[in-house]
Design brief:
The structure is a homodimer. Chain A is mainly α. Chain A contains 30 helices and 18 strands.
C-alpha cells in the first residue's frame, strides 16, 4: 500500500515559502540587468539547498509543446510544402554546422592541451633529471606543484568568478536541460568560452580529470547558439533560422549537440546518439534521430580530419575521437565462456567501488556546499588539490623502485630515468607523466610485465581518492577518464594476479583485456549508464567482440551500484534540488489523482482582460506559475470557469511591451499587427515585467488574448491518476497541464514541480518539500 | 497552401462501404470458429486491395494506453512496492526467456539448413562430376532442379495452405504490429512453426533468399507467446505472467523479441535494439530499452554458445550471429579521405539499384495480387522460381570458363572442377554452390584475383532479377542476404575495376572493402534503414573503422532511393492498405482540425445502459468502432452529451458473457464480482457477439458500466489541429481519442484510420479512401 509520508497542501506550502520567495521573484524574465559581479554570484553553490528532500522552485521549465495559437497556425498554413522542405533542409544544415563546430572545438582543446602539457612535462622532466644527480629533488617538486597550481588557478578563477555553471563536466546540466528544466545560463556563449579555457587549464594542470565530459556541454552550447542564428551576448542577429527560436526546436538541436560532443570525445557517433536518447529524449522521432546521427558523424569526422593534419598524416582517419583506446588485436581479444563469471565479478567490484566513489563525493559535495562557497575559497581549494596531486605523484615516483627497460620502439613519450639504471625508466613516472588518456591506453595495450603489481595497486588507491576529491571542484573537467583510468589500473592488476595464479597459462596472459573490463566496470559503477556506454566503449576500442562482456559488466555494475547509491550525475542533480522528471511516475502512486497533485486555485485570465489586472498578476511575486489558463468569464473568486485556452507569461510580456491594447488598435488603425516574429525576437530572454512601463491610463485598457493564447491546451479530468498525468506530461514534454472538471471548467494546473515532488523513498512514496531557493 | 485533392465526409464513405462491409463484420471478436481451410483463406492476397490509394478498414488497432478503470486502479493500489519489484523482475525473466528461445530457434534453423544444404550440394556435386566426364550434364541439371523444387514445394505448401501470413520476411508485419496495427494471426504459434520450416525449405531449396529476416518475426512470436504465459493454440495456461495480458505490455515484449531476432540473425545486439526503436517505438523508456538490450544479448549469446558446441569448439564465442561477415583485418580496413567521394558514389548507385529493385518488385506484387492468388498457383510459382534458379545457375556455371587454382588452405567447401584443369575449380560454381551467407563472406574476404570481373558482372545481373522475382513468393524468406550478396558482387566489381584503372596501386588493391560498401549500399537502397543498419553492419563485420563510410553510404542510398520510390517494406505495407501511422502528421496538414478528421456521429452509451441496446450496438455490422464513449445521458439522436468515460467492445463482450446485469446482481447477492482476471483470461481472442446468447428477458436488464469504463480517457477539443491530434495519438499509442466541445460533450471520435488517411502525395495533401476489404 502506498505510504505517503508527508503531504502538504499547496496553499500551506505557498504560505510557508511566500516570504522567503520575495527575495527572488519567480518571474519568467527575472534576469534583471545586474552587475556582472552580482550576476556571477547567483549560480554559486551557496544558494543550493543542501537538503535532498527539497525541490527548488527557482528552476523554470522548458516547453516542448508547440504553442498553437492563431498566429502559429496562420504561419503554418501559409507555408507551402516547399517551405517545409526548405525548413527540413535547414535543420540538416544546422546539424551539420553543429557537428563541424563541435569537432573544431574538440580539435582545439586537444591540440592546446597536447602542446601545453608537452612543454610542462619536458620542463619538469629536465628539472628532475638535473636534480637527480646533484640531489635537491624537492626543488623539482616545488616547480611541478607551482606549475600545476598556476594552470589550475587560472581555470578555477575563470570558473568560480565568471561562470560558475561551467564547473564540472556539464553532463548533469545537459541532462536537466534535455529533461525540460531551464538551468540558467547553461547554453550561453560565455559558458562555452569559460568551459573550453577551463578544461584546458585543469587538464594541463595535472588534475585527475578528463577533457571528454565537457565536450558534451560544449556541443550543447554550440547547438543552442547555432540553431538560433544569433548571439544575444554578441548582440548579433543573422536573421536566419528564426523558425527555430522556440523550446521545441532548440531542444532537438541541443540533443544533436550533446551527441556531437560525445562523438567527438570518444569517436563514437552511434554512442553519441544513444547518449542523447538515453539521457534526454522522451518522444523518439526517426527523422530527429537521423539528424542527430548526422551531427555526430560530422563531428567525429571533423575532429579526425584536423587531427590528422596536425599529426602530419593528412587523410588518415583512424583516430576519430579525443580519446582513442587503441585497437585491440584479434588474438588478445578472444575470450572464453568460463571467463564470463570473472567479468561479472569485476562488474560487481566496479559497482562497489563506484558506489564508494559516489558516497565519498556526496559527502564532499555537502561539505563544499556548506563551507566552500566563496569564489576565493573555491580557487584555493582547486589550487590545493593541484599541489597535492603533484606532491602525491612526486612522492610515489620518488619511492617507487619499479624500473622497466626502455623498449626498442620507445613508446614512452617522457621516460623518466630517476634512480633507475641506464636504459631503464621509472614506470610509476610514466603513469603520472602522461595525459590520463595516454595512461589508459598504456594500461590497455602495454606488454604483460610492463607494470609492477604493487605500483598498480598504489596508483589505483591514490588516483581513486584524488579523482574523488577533484570531481566537484570549481574547474571544468570530466569524470570519464579518471574513472576509466582507475578501472583500467585495478583491472590490469586483476589480470596480472590471474596470470600469476594460473602460472602464466596463455589464456590469462594478457592483462590488457582485464584492464578494459575493469575500466568499463569502474565507469559504469560511477555514472550508471548502460546502453550508450556499451556502444561508446565498443566504438572507442574499435572492436565489437568485447560488446557482450562489456554489456554484462556494465549491467552488473549498475545493479550492484544502484543497491547502495544513485549514479554520480543523479546525486549532483538531486543536490541541486532540480525538479527532474524520471521515466515513469513512482510505481505505487496510483493512489494520487490530478486533484491532489495539481496546484489550486489557479490564477485565470479572461479572454478580454483589463491591462491593469494582467500587470498586477504578472507583478505579484508570490505567483508561482508562468502559464495562465484563459477562461470565458472569471466568475467568483474560487468559482471555476470554462477553459478557453492557455497563455504564457512570456507572451503577455511581449503583448504588454508592444501595447497590444484594444483601445489603441481602434484609435491607431495603422498599427502593425503583432506577428510571431515579435515573440521570436524576444525569445529566450524575455524582459521582466518591472522593465515594462504601463501608465495609469493604459491600465484601464483591455487586451484581447484570443489570438495569442493556445486555444487547445492539453487537459486532464481531475480524477486522472498520477501515473496517467505523468505519462501525458512526460511523453509530450509539457510545461503546463490544465486540470478540468467534467464541465470543462478549470480547477487546477499541473506543472513539473507538482509531478517531480513525488518519489519513491525508503519508506514508500515520499513527497519532497518545495523551496524557493 | 495545402491542397486537399479529395475530401469525402465520413458519412458518405460509410454509406459507400456499408454494403460491402457486411460480408466481413468489423467486430473486435470477429474470429468466429471456422474451418482451418476457411481460416487459411482469409489472409490470402486475394483480399488485398491492389490500390494504394485505399486504406483498409479490416485491420484493428492495438491499444497501447492502459485502460484505467476502477478495477485496474484497485489492483494497482492493492499492489505493494514489493509487488511492483517482483513484476519488474518477472519482466526481466521474460526477456531472458525470449532471448534464450530466439537464440535456440536461430541455432536450430542454422544447423538444419547447414546439414540439409550440405547433403544437397554433395549429391549434386558428385552427380555433376560423374557426368562431366561422360557427357549428359542435363541429367545433373534436372536432378538439381528437382531437388530445389521439392524443397521449395514443401515450404510453399506450408505457407500458402496453412499460414499465408508466414510468407516473406515478416518484417513489414512486425513493423505494423509495433506501430499499433493488429495483423491477424501474426504472432501465433502456428505462424512460428510454419515460418521456421518454411525458411529452412526455401534456403535449402536454393532460392535467392536469406534466413535472417524471418528471425525477426520468429523472435516476435516467441515474445508474444512467452510473455502471456499460455498458449491458446495448445490450450495450455500456465497461470503465470497474467499481469502482462494486455496490449501495452505485450508490445514491449514483442519489441524485445524483434530485437532478439535481429541480434541472433546478425550477432548485433545493439543493432537489434536500434531496429526495434527505429521501426516501432514511439515513447522511449530507459528501463524498457535495457530489457530489450538484455533480450538481444541473451539471444546472441545462446546462439553463439550452441553453435560453438555444434562446431566442436565449445566456449569459443566468436560467431555471434547466423551470418558472420568475417573479421576485416586492420591493414585492409584503412581508408583514406579521398575514397569517401567514391563511397558516396557507390551509395548513390545502391540507391538507384535499390529503387529499381523496389519498382520491379512492386509491379510483380501487383501482378501477383491480381493473378496469382490461389494457393496452388502460388506453390507452382515458387517451384517455378526454384527450378529457374537452378537452371540459371547451372547455365552460368556451364558457360563460365573462369577457372581458379585451388588454394592451399582449401577454403572452398564444395569446389567444382567441371571443365577446369586439375587443381583448379570453377569460380562461378562456388558462388552458387554455397549458402548465400558464405558467398557474401567470400566476396568480402577472398584474395584479390579470386573472381573474374565478367563472372561477377553476370552474377550480379542474374542474382538481382532472381532475388527480385523471389521476394513476395509464398515462401518464408528474407531479403537481407540477397541484397547484401548483390551489393557485395557489384561492389567487388567496382573494386576490381578501380584496381585495374589505377594499375594495382596498393591503396586500391583490396576489392573486399568495396564489396562491403557495395553490400551496405544495396541493402540500404532496398530497405532504407539508416541508423540501425549502420550498427548492424558494424557489429556483423566486427569492426568500427568502417562505421563512418557505411553511414554515409546508407544515407546517400536512402536519399537517392527515396527520390524515386519508398522502401521495400513500406511498399508492401502500403499495398496491403494498412493504416500505418508515420512519425509525424503531414507537414501541410495544419489546415485540418479534429472536427474534420474525426468520425461523427459517434455511438455513445449511457453509464447505466439497457442490455438490449448494447447487444444491438455490438451486433450492428456497419458500426466501425470498437470503442464507445460513455456519456451521462444520451439526449437526442444527434445531441452531444457529456463525456463520462470510454468502454471497449471487448470489455462489453466480457460483461455480457458474465451477465453482469444490475437486476441479477440484486437477486443473486452471492454472485462473484467481476475481476480484472476475467478480462485477462479472454485476452486477446475475445468471443464474437454472435456467440453470446442473450435472452429476451435479459435484454430488458440494465448494465452499470461505471466500474468498467476508462473514466479518464484522453480528449481533445474539436478545434485542435491535425498535427496536434496526431502527436498526442502517436506519442501515447492510443486507439481511441474522444473529441469534445467546450462543454466536454462528445462530438466525435478519432481513430487510427482517421489519422492515417491523410498523406502527402505528389499533389500536396491527399486523402486515402477507406475500404472494407
Amino acid at each position: 500500500m502506498a505510504n505517503i509520508t508527508k503531504k502538504v497542501s499547496w496553499s500551506s506550502r505557498a504560505e510557508e515559502s511566500g516570504p522567503a520567495g520575495e527575495g527572488t521573484p519567480l518571474l519568467n524574465g527575472s534576469e534583471q540587468p545586474r552587475q556582472s559581479r552580482q550576476d556571477s554570484l547567483r549560480g554559486r553553490p551557496k544558494e543550493i539547498p543542501h537538503n535532498e528532500k527539497l525541490l527548488s522552485l527557482k528552476f523554470e521549465s522548458l516547453d516542448y509543446d508547440n504553442i498553437e495559437n492563431q498566429l502559429f497556425l496562420e504561419e503554418e498554413r501559409r507555408m507551402s510544402y516547399m517551405g517545409f522542405r526548405c525548413l527540413e533542409i535547414s535543420r540538416w544544415v544546422v546539424c551539420g554546422l553543429i557537428g563541424f563546430l563541435t569537432g573544431l572545438i574538440a580539435c582545439f582543446i586537444d591540440i592546446v592541451v597536447e602542446e601545453l602539457a608537452g612543454i610542462k612535462y619536458q620542463v619538469v622532466k629536465e628539472n628532475i633529471e638535473k636534480f637527480t644527480e646533484v640531489g635537491g629533488l624537492s626543488i623539482s617538486l616545488i616547480l611541478w606543484a607551482v606549475f600545476n597550481s598556476a594552470f589550475v588557478m587560472v581555470g578555477a578563477i575563470l570558473v568560480a568568478c565568471f561562470e560558475p555553471i561551467a564547473a564540472g563536466s556539464g553532463i548533469p546540466q545537459i541532462k536537466c536541460y534535455l529533461n525540460g528544466v531551464k538551468i540558467p545560463r547553461v547554453v550561453r556563449l560565455k559558458t562555452l568560452l569559460v568551459k573550453v579555457c577551463g578544461v584546458i587549464c585543469s587538464v594541463v594542470g595535472g588534475l585527475a580529470v578528463g577533457k571528454e565530459g565537457p565536450m558534451i556541454h560544449s556541443g550543447a552550447v554550440v547547438a543552442a547558439g547555432v540553431s538560433q542564428g544569433r548571439s544575444t551576448s554578441l548582440k548579433r542577429d543573422f536573421k536566419i533560422f528564426e523558425y527555430f527560436r522556440r523550446d521545441t526546436e532548440k531542444r532537438d538541436f541541443v540533443s544533436a549537440g550533446a551527441a556531437a560532443g560525445v562523438s567527438a570525445a570518444f569517436g563514437a557517433p552511434v554512442g553519441g546518439v544513444l547518449f542523447s536518447l538515453e539521457e534526454g529524449a522522451s518522444f523518439w522521432n526517426q527523422m530527429l534521430t537521423w539528424r542527430i546521427f548526422f551531427a555526430s558523424m560530422i563531428s567525429t569526422f571533423t575532429l579526425n580530419f584536423f587531427l590528422s593534419i596536425y599529426h602530419n598524416k593528412p587523410g588518415d582517419l583512424s583516430s576519430p575521437g579525443l580519446i582513442n583506446f587503441g585497437r585491440f588485436e584479434n588474438d588478445s581479444v578472444a575470450y572464453n565462456l568460463y571467463e564470463i563469471p570473472l567479468f561479472i565479478a569485476m562488474g560487481a567490484i566496479g559497482g562497489l567501488l563506484g558506489a564508494l566513489f559516489n558516497v565519498l563525493n556526496y559527502w564532499l559535495t555537502i561539505f563544499r556546499i556548506r563551507y566552500v562557497h566563496r569564489p576565493c575559497l573555491q580557487v584555493m581549494e582547486a589550487m590545493l588539490v593541484a599541489a597535492v596531486t603533484a606532491t602525491v605523484s612526486f612522492t610515489m615516483i620518488y619511492f617507487s623502485n619499479d624500473c622497466q627497460p626502455l623498449g626498442p620502439d620507445h613508446n614512452e613519450e617522457y621516460p623518466l630515468q630517476l634512480f633507475c639504471a641506464d636504459g631503464e625508466y621509472n614506470s610509476m613516472a610514466t603513469a603520472f607523466f602522461n595525459t590520463p588518456e595516454k595512461s589508459v591506453r598504456s594500461l590497455f595495450h602495454n606488454q604483460p610485465g610492463t607494470y609492477n603489481p604493487l605500483t598498480l595497486g598504489v596508483f589505483t588507491l591514490t588516483y581513486f581518492f584524488l579523482a574523488c576529491w577533484t570531481y566537484g571542484l570549481a574547474v571544468s573537467a570530466g569524470v570519464f577518464i579518471p574513472s576509466l583510468l582507475i578501472g583500467a589500473a585495478w583491472g590490469r592488476l586483476c589480470g596480472i594476479l590471474l596470470a600469476s595464479i594460473t602460472g602464466n597459462d596463455s589464456t590469462w596472459a594478457n592483462p590488457g583485456k582485464y584492464a578494459l573490463i575493469g575500466a568499463a566496470a569502474q565507469l559504469g559503477g560511477i555514472v550508471r549508464m548502460t546502453l550508450s556506454l556499451t556502444v561508446i566503449m565498443v566504438e572507442a576500442t574499435g572492436n565489437v567482440t568485447y560488446g557482450l562482456p562489456i554489456m554484462l559488466v556494465l549491467m552488473t555494475a549498475k545493479i550492484v551500484g544502484d543497491y547502495f547509491v544513485e549514479g554520480l550525475y543523479d546525486i549532483h542533480i538531486k543536490l541541486q534540488s532540480v525538479p527532474f522528471l524520471h521515466w515513469e511516475a513512482p510505481a505505487t502512486s496510483h493512489w494520487l489523482t490530478a486533484r491532489e497533485v495539481m496546484s489550486s486555485p489557479v490564477t485565470c485570465l479572461n479572454q478580454i482582460e483589463k491591462v491593469g489586472t494582467i500587470v498586477d498578476v504578472l507583478s505579484n511575486t508570490s505567483t508561482n506559475h508562468n502559464g495562465f489558463p484563459v477562461v470565458a468569464q472569471v466568475a467568483g473568486s474560487d468559482e471555476p470557469a470554462k477553459l478557453c485556452g492557455l497563455i504564457l507569461r512570456s507572451q503577455l510580456i511581449v503583448l504588454l511591451k508592444h501595447k497590444v491594447f484594444m483601445e489603441l488598435a481602434r484609435s491607431r488603425l495603422t498599427q502593425r499587427k503583432l506577428q510571431l516574429k515579435d515573440f521570436r525576437d524576444a525569445y529566450p530572454r524575455f524582459p521582466p515585467i518591472q522593465s515594462i512601463h504601463v501608465s495609469q491610463d493604459e491600465r484601464e485598457c483591455m487586451m484581447d488574448l484570443t489570438e495569442f493564447m493556445n486555444a487547445t491546451p492539453y487537459t486532464v479530468p481531475q480524477e486522472t491518476s498520477l501515473p496517467r498525468v505523468f505519462k501525458l506530461f512526460r511523453a509530450l514534454g509539457l510545461r503546463h497541464l490544465v486540470v478540468v472538471n467534467d464541465e470543462n471548467k478549470v480547477v487546477g494546473l499541473v506543472t513539473r514541480k507538482d509531478l517531480a515532488r513525488y518519489h519513491l523513498g525508503k519508506h514508500g512514496l515520499e513527497e519532497l518539500q518545495l523551496a524557493q531557493t
